[in-house]
Protein: Abc transporter g family member 11
Amino acid sequence: MEILTRPKLLFLDEPTSGLDSAASYYVMSGISRQRLGRTIITSIHQPSAEVFNLFHNLCLMSSGRTVYFGPASAAIEFFGTNGFPCPALQSPSDHFLKTISKDFMRISNMNQVLEICQQGGEILEKRSHANFTTQSLVLTRRSSVNMFRDLGYYWMRFASYVVIALGLGSIYYNVDSSYGSIEERGLMVAFVVSFMTFMTVGGFPSFVEDMKVFQRENLNGHYGCCAFVIGNTLSSMPYLLLISLVPGAIAYFLTGFQNGFGHFIYFALVLFTSMMIVESLMANVAAIVPNFLMGIVIGAGIQGLQILSGGFFQTPNELPKLIWKYPLYYLSFHKYAYQGMFKNEFDGLTFTDNLNGNNHTISGEDVLRDKWQVEMTYSKWIDLSILVGTLIVYHLDFFLIIKTNEKVVHTIKASTSILSNRSRQIMGKSLPALPLHGLTSSHDISTDNV
Structure:
């Protein structure tokens, strides 16, 4: 089935199980002929010398640690150099298995194997799982590689952000300090906070696939929920930071927002944190609703409610008190993103009314207080801190959801196993006596066959 799809990478788990040496050779030689244009990785149990010679590369492991990884043709020389020469009339695969397998090891032999592993920089340790730090690092690296290779995960979104940033910069190019620029600056901020963060839901399909892999590997006990959350979070941060800095810089400087590196860094930090929040929100949705279409609809709906209640499309004082003001306005992360960016942009500026020639001026603080109804009792850094706090809460929610799902799945699995064992016991006790009909011995019939 897998070969028919012509995958670039094919995994096979003991394809020769239950076959004799001749059948094993024909199967493996057939698989070997499929190698052109693809990589085939297979685990194999006690291969014959003929089957062993079909392999190009070999990985030998003992107690969970690598003893040898390299060309199969060089393995005999490697073992011989390190004091384990292969006898002339013995199959190399049998010799390797006898040397590294804990079932064959003696105390002196174990010490020699440890010397081999030390040459590669690692010592064999008897442990069933990698530690938490190793799990997190491996998952982070694997997720980063997947994101880098998958064009649709971040690279297409990066290209879209660049195009949109160029559009914003050309529409609001080099705004001045007139009264009209107040509205333009506000619209620019609103678009960045609302719609550039909204586009982050585009990563939902890829995350659903990640969740499927996690559920399978977590059920097999390879790693825990916390390591997965950490790995997924750390791997996405560089890409989101890149999206925040490059398209953010294009839109910010083309528009002509406040000069100063500190103002731009704050702008990029708010954009980065907001996109992280949306990704975390979609992760929560994926953990609860793994269906692609339903997840997109639910995630977009939650985003839409937060945008509407954030305090821009309807000013805070005009929001209906029930539901929209309390509690949605204070729960929406857009409120703090809007107000933080408004403070960053308007604080310290002065705007002049040149339309009627009276040169009337208004300060940025008055614009914040009267036009945008921004809460001036705390600084923009408090708004950013609240955004970071919201991000942490969303990640904790995600961890609790998948942890709860893990316990439910393990409970169901355990219950199913108990019921299955009990059913077999009942069936074994209740089977009626069967006539032998000429069979020579009673052991010719077993409950398993029945």
About this structure: The beta strands are 9-13, 39-43, 57-62, 65-71, 322-323, 326-327, 350-353, 360-363. The longest helix spans residues 380-430. The chain is about 60% helix and 10% strand. The CA atoms of residues 287 and 402 lie 6 Å apart.
